[in-house]
TrEMBL record:
UniProt-recorded name of the protein: Bleomycin resistance protein
Organism: Sinorhizobium americanum
Domain of life: Bacteria
Pfam family, one: Glyoxalase
SUPFAM superfamilies: Glyoxalase/Bleomycin resistance protein/Dihydroxybiphenyl dioxygenase (SSF54593)
Amino acid sequence: MTQTIARVAILVPDYDAGIAFYCGRLGFELIQDTAVGDGKRWVLVRPRGATETALLIARAEGDRQKAAIGNQTGGRVGFFLFTDDFARDHAAMLAAGVEFLEMPRHEAYGTVAVFTDPFGNRWDLLQPAS
């Protein structure tokens, strides 16, 4: 049996704001944006070159979901963007206005730096060790 984590939902205040950041600043590709009724959309984005996992951009509805925007993982890094060229992607992200919370550091598992999306979620940009 083969299983894959295919979609991970991330709460945002607005679909278009999510698309603007993930596609506009991070360079992800928009792979689907379909109206599903009642103002809801099925919006999928993924890093260029990725083939399996995609983010489902989910517009928060109601007070409980709105309160969870940016805190879906309790303030921890909850998302990990792997790269094959840390220096290239770090420079491109800085140029696009992505906010890094620390300088790049070298760990046993690779080169890493924490950044945030405009919604408050913490991400690792990570080039795994060889």
